[in-house]
Amino acid sequence: MQEEISKVLVLGNKGQLGFEVEEYLSSRGYSVVGMDYPELDVLTGDGRDALIGYLREVSAVVNCIAFTDVDKAQDPDLRDAVFRINADFPGQLSRACAEAGVVLIHISTDYVFSGHTARPYREADTPAPLNVYGASKLEGEVNALSSGDKVFVFRCAGLYGVKGPRGKGANFIDTIISLSQDRDVLKVVDDQITSPTSCSDVARAIERFLREGMSDYGIYHCTNSGAVSWYGLARFVLDTIGWQGKLLPVGTKDFPRPAPRPAYSALDNTKIRSVVEMRDWQDAVEEYLRRKYPERLLK
Ligand SMILES: NC(=O)c1ccc[n+]([C@@H]2O[C@H](COP(=O)([O-])OP(=O)(O)OC[C@H]3O[C@@H](n4cnc5c(N)ncnc54)[C@H](OP(=O)(O)O)[C@@H]3O)[C@@H](O)[C@H]2O)c1
Questions:
Q1: How much is the pTM?
Q2: 22-28 long-range contacts, Cβ below 8 Å, gap at least 24?
């Protein structure tokens, strides 16, 4: 199968997820071409011709491009740009992929859901985003799926990767570790539950779909298994590195931010696990800490 999908275009390859997707696919023998801002700017159209040219050479495209700063996206002055990047571009890309006969794997988010539930969301559950970012990403899913044919939408959540996100500073784990170096007391919200997910595990899932030549297109919840609050994740990270300070659980109301966030956006990953193993979030976090902070780990 792999011979058919040997060349892959990774869009957003300088970002947190795209970087790991490019690295992993390359390590598995794929020929990877990457494009990212500024050589490709989906707002101005710069790089569009080069992108169309690549579509004639590749068998699959992984789209990791997005406006990812959830709070900034609430700014009314940025709304148009947010929707053009997160909603319009996936539709245009999907159409171009269909014309070229290319598989598209488009990355989306748990923030398409409202969080008003008590069990992990399944792919068939009705989205109802609470913020502009989530609304734009939901429109992007719909546009990608309706404009093309060989389209996978992978919904991820709480992503962390060695490079850190380009669009919004450090990822959560890196932020907690950095703060723990300077402070004796940390406060983290305990009333937002998600499924923290390793970028390298998303990259592995993408590779498996390509290798298997999967043709059961549609939406997949691509997360590590299990769910935890941001406080619970911080507790796990800080215990693993042996931090001696005090970690306090606080409520979302104590940390007002521009964008409302779902209280519960854990994703049920049963569907994708019929194709690829998605390990428990704890195992993935441990591996990340070993990889990025080997000197901080308890012996
Ligand atoms: N991070 C999370 O916790 C999380 C959770 C769930 C889902 N996701 C989804 O996962 C995907 C990857 O996110 P990430 O964490 O890897 O974020 P990231 O590091 O911010 O990567 C996004 C990439 O898109 C690029 N980009 C933004 N505007 C662009 C434009 N106008 N033209 C071309 N490229 C542009 C960014 O470049 P610049 O930075 O230079 O603009 C960046 O390289 C996104 O679809 C996101 O919605 C993320």
A1: 0.96
A2: 23/203, 24/200, 24/203, 24/204, 24/206, 24/207, 25/203, 25/206, 25/207, 25/210, 28/207, 28/211
- Which protein residue has the closest C-alpha to ligand 1 atom 4? 159
104 lines ligand 1 (CB under 6 A): no
User: Which atom number of ligand 1 is nearest to the Cα of residue 166?
Assistant: 19
Pocket test for ligand 1, best of 42, 65, 265, 288 (most atoms within 8 A of CB): 65
- Catalytically active residues, by annotation: 133
Which architecture, in CATH terms, is 2-168+197-224? 3-Layer(aba) Sandwich (3.40)
Q: Give the Cα separation of 9 and 287 in Å (integer).
A: 27
Domain positions in the chain = 2-168+197-224
Task: Answer yes or no: is the C-beta of 79 below 6 A from any ligand 1 atom.
Answer: no
Amino acid letter for position 256: P
Test site for ligand 1: of 11, 37, 194, most ligand atoms within 8 A of the Cβ? 37
Cβ pair 60, 9 in contact under 8 A? yes
Ligand 1 within 6 A of CB of 156: yes
Taking only the tens of pLDDT, the chain with its 299 residues reads 444 558 999 999 999 999 999 999 999 999 999 999 999 999 999 999 999 999 999 999 999 999 999 999 999 999 999 999 999 999 999 999 999 999 999 999 999 999 999 899 999 999 999 999 999 999 999 999 999 999 999 999 999 999 877 766 789 999 999 999 999 999 999 999 999 999 999 999 999 999 998 999 999 999 999 999 999 999 999 999 999 999 999 999 998 899 999 999 999 999 999 999 999 999 999 999 999 998 877 55
